[in-house]
Amino acid sequence: MSSAHLGTLYVGRLFLGISNGLYLTYSATYLGEVAPTYLRGSAVGLVTFQTSFGALIGVLVDNYTAKYQSQTSYLIPLGVMFVVPVALSVGLLFLPESPRHYIRMGLDAKAENAIRILRGINDADRLIAEAASIREAWVIENAHSQTVRLVDAFKGDNLKRTALTLCCSVGQTASGVIFFSAFSIYFYAQAGVKNEFVWVMMSLAIALTGNMGAFFVMRFVERRILLSACSIINAAIMFIIAGVYTRLSTGSYLAAQILVAMGTLFTWVYGIGQGPVLWALTVEIPSQRLRSKTVGLATGCNYLFAWVATYSAPYFINPEALNWGPKYCYIWRVSNLLLGIWAFLVIPDVKGKSLEQITSSMIRNSQGKDGEAVAATEHCENGHCE
Fold this sequence. Notes:
Number of helices: 16
Low-confidence stretches: 369-386
CATH topology: Growth Hormone, Chain: A
Order of helices and strands: HHHHHHHHHHHHHHHH
Largest sheet: none
Shape: globular
Helix content: over 70%
Mean pLDDT: 84
């Protein structure tokens, strides 16, 4: 904000990128570790709501400051970005660390106190049982490996979990949401849509209702079914958009109407199913020991694929290049279809299970036998598990 020199802007953008990578990794991990079992998927899924709401505010501010011919046209949008980090920094002072982190550090008393604050449990026996469940699962995991290195994520039973986590994270890009969020305004303009800024803001606002709906839907619908269904629906939406522009001209008013309607429906379906489920699974599937490392690696891989998608998109849609325009959605139709099929065939059932139960079932499945790990979380089956 203090300089218009290109080098300064690059350095500032670099630090923003680093902070964003850290924030996405640790905010999602923290939410996954502190949320009660029955709310974990819904809570982590709110990451999608946060990004959609932030995008809406960003588009609004950019749209109404673009008319200024002075430095305020970019100083105001950058200044607005201080609000959320400041609020988070203050709020985090009043939040305890994750109970699972305290257990990893051998601080059982602090873990029990964190559970009491975060979940409102005051019964001493329940607090001891919750902490014991986490501790026993931690001991079982350590029996397989004492180290906490990134390379451990690719060894033994962790290899499958890492592969699933990476696929879930990259699935964010495979859904096509990166393409729509990065190029929707240009996309609408090229397709002949008038007042494209207004339509993008409307689309984001409607998508927020899907994000909010996901908080309730994820409590009752299995992750695998919800992700698969939403991916297949979005594959059909992408096919409709591409098909319409295959039959009609780019300047067709009817085609433009269909594009806006289908684009809005796509963001809503993504918000209620794909985004929240993929974020939740990315946090839920890794082992307790390697969760933050695996989530960070997965987020980084998704950033890489998102960069490839964003970098290559102009060559497909620009009139001076391949000139596919909205027909580029044929590619995203295929990726959504593959995501839906993969989710239905591969994603494990984790709904209603504590993170320790997920770990236990993963270990048992990899070893092909029943393990004593169930005992570590058995008390969660009687309705008292938080």
